[in-house]
Protein 1
Amino acid sequence: MSEPETSVPYDLGGTEGTKPKERSFVDLLRQINARMVLGALAAIALIVFIAQNTDETRVNFLGWDWDLPLFLLLLITIVLSVVCTEIASWYMGRRRHRRNR
């Protein structure tokens, strides 16, 4: 009787003794998709936004006083808005799910 072959669940880049095919620059360019382009544009826009809004701003909230750069204040406001929106939509989805049972 012969022993069963051990198989590899995925290709490791070719058989033993051969080098895996090197990817050309054109192949790498083909893999760039819209998400990567939009992510790069968003990062550039964020850097420009930060560079243009570095002035200090006084913030008064519930008796506390802070001096923050304007870009930081706006970014904190945006993040808190997104978090509150996500929490509200999650809560409304739960209510809708309970009502439809």
Note: The longest strand covers residues 56-61.
Protein 2
Amino acid sequence: MKSTLRRTWAEIDLDALEHNYRTLRARIGVGVKFLGVVKADAYGHGSVQVGRKLEKLGADYLAVSSIDEAVELRENGIVLPILILGHTPKDQVKKLIEMHITQAVTCKAKALEYSKEASRIGKNLRVHIKVDTGMSRLGYLCDGEGFENGVDGIVEACRLPGLEAEGIFTHFALSDTDDPHGVEYTKKQFSLFTSVIRETEEKWGQKFALRHCANTGAVANYPETFLDMVRPGLLLYGYGEYAEPLGLKPVMSVRTTVSTIKIYPEGTPISYGGTYVTDKTTRVGVLPIGYADGYLRCLSNKWHMMTEDGAVRQVGRICMDMCMVDLTDCPNVEVGSELEVFGTENSINEMAETAGTIPYEITCAVSKRVPRKYMAGGEVQEEELLLRGL
């Protein structure tokens, strides 16, 4: 569906995505595979469009969170291997096999369920075994006294009928911090992971084709963790503290327009609750973007937007569908003028810090009613609105 309104939109820079991919490819070196994380609609960027671009560029794998996300990619013509990082019900095993989708196995119960279903239809399900080395979330627990039991459980899963154990992986919890505790913790996780791999392969009598653990923080900070494949998320999209030092570019920008301009006298409360009161005669612009579009309400009276005259302060509480900005010092900004909410001129990293969150949440929050415009060479290549067509 296409939007008929020039209201608020997100621009996805496919040239920046390509630049980031090639830059990261050069960083990881020859012989290391590249997995593009495109879960949650590629963190709001559009999983199909990002997946197609990564496939064209030569990526080796994609990762999603659920079977629905994987099926969306397949039904849109993407043939790259796809790894589901999250849970898939056992009654979906047949679909996983038919659509050549790889499933993470996180515990004995899941391994047994998947094995039984795959064996029932007489085919193999490709799986990657997940190891919990310190994230304390999903995966076979192998730390401390549980090491031998964990390894034995993984070996058992690898030998189950109907399962083809292609890979093994873990997830770092503190690789994106450079304090001594974070460094020590990450190195401990990596050491445990490699020990699990070594012991498992010895007992199993086979080697995993793909061993992977390097997320964004590890790709930036721990080259020794690259192993057979890396999984950059935040870096691929050009955000976070490591993006600029590595020469990466932000892929998404959100833009809006001025819908109305009004002049208010000194002492006028603006928006719900009157949390902002004008301290002089103030030229106020009303923008058609609010928290229903993903502009977080916690940013009220704290953020700024970029205009052709420079930065303007957002004032008053952010509403569901709109917000207000102070245009007093911006005479060239008129009704219809464009403003950048975040992007190349207005850092999403700073915005996330102001909101007390991470860039991921900002991009994921951009709602389905905000059209995505996919740009290449400065031109719109494709436009998508995720609202259901009438």
Note: Residues 133 and 189 are 5 Å apart (CA to CA).
